[in-house]
Amino acid sequence: MSPAIGHGHGKLILAGEHAVVYGHPALAMAVDRGFTTTLTPEPGPLQLPVEDPRLRAVVQDALPEGGYKVQIESTLPLGRGMGSSAALAVSLVRAVASARGEQLDPAVEWERVFAIEQRFHGTPSGVDQAVSARGGVVRFRRGPPPEITALPHPDWEVVVLDSGKAGDTRTMVDKVRALRPAIDPILSAIGALVDQAQAVLTAPRELGPLLTENHRLLQQIGVSTPTLDTLVDLALSAGAHGAKLSGAGGGGVVLALVGDPAPILTAARERGISAFCCRAAPSDPELP
Ligand code: MEV
């Protein structure tokens, strides 16, 4: 029998992280990197991209009956706010369904992936798995039921700058929750900014300053770090249209919306900062 394969996209949040946990909308983009799970029906080892007990337990619990060689590969930096847990969960759920010969209804897939995301993050909004499963760029508002709208495919490029430090989503979400209700006006401002950003999604010169403004608001709720702020400043001084931390913060990555990636990649290389280009992954036209 041939192997069963599942793929999940990684993501970048363009605008709206943290506010999305409290019912505001967010814009997220699937990237052309992600997780692939391959299940081969023969006895074999469980190969993970990184040795982590929680990850091993999640994978073991999801495996179908019978002996499988399991290979999980990632082209995403792990724990950097690029949706690695959601991409893993989508790839795993899809590979397991394929191994069982099961045609997965999107609502059933959602529930299975959400259960895995809860094991990693506690109370996720679902934005990561929404974009990981569908690709493209989406507007997301948490449910139930979640509102997910596919948006026009942008042709701009982003440079991702890695802070070199993992950020823990659960810890950062808990930290923000503890600051409420005092920070609710800032969360509302982030939500309003998402609507403005959506209206200029395919116009990078107009979108960029809104992303930078989103970073300033994220600073105000305490999820940025001096390193992330330095990366934003570096990107802006190297000519980015806009830049912001992306994901839960406390570490992770900065995304820079660029016309020309070369000056930012050069500036990053000169300072020993890991950086790479990303484009939006194609969206899945099958999904509603
Ligand atoms: C994490 O990618 C985004 C957060 O808003 C958490 C969530 O939405 O579950 C920080």
User: What are the segments in which pLDDT stays under 50 over at least 5 consecutive residues?
Assistant: none
Ligand inventory reads:
(R)-mevalonate
Which class do the helix and strand fractions yield? alpha+beta
Tell me about the largest β-sheet.
6 strands, mixed
Helix content: 25-40%
Gap between N and C termini, in Å?
31 Å
Taken as a percent bin, the fraction of beta residues is 15-25%
Radius of gyration (Å): 18 Å
> Got a strand count?
10
Give the count of helical stretches. 9
Oligomeric state as shown: single chain
The shape, in one word, is globular
What order do the helices and strands follow?
EEEHEHHHEEEHHHHEEHE
Provide the residue-averaged pLDDT: 95
Summarize the structure.
The protein is of the alpha+beta class and 288 residues long.
List the main descriptive attributes of the protein structure presented here:
288 residues; alpha+beta; 4-stranded antiparallel β-sheet; 40% helix; globular; binds (R)-mevalonate
Q: How would you explain this protein's 3D organization?
A:
It contains nine helices and ten strands. The model has no long low-confidence stretch (mean pLDDT 95). Helix content is 40%, strand content 23%. The protein has helices at residues 53-62, 84-99, 106-121, 127-134, 169-179, 184-199, 204-220, 226-237, 262-270; strands at residues 4-15, 26-40, 46-47, 69-74, 137-141, 147-151, 157-162, 242-246, 253-258, 275-278. It has 288 residues and is an alpha+beta fold. Strands 1, 2, 3, 4, 5 and 6 form a six-stranded mixed β-sheet that branches. The chain has a four-stranded antiparallel β-sheet with strand order 8-9-7-10. (R)-mevalonate binds next to helix 4 and helix 5.
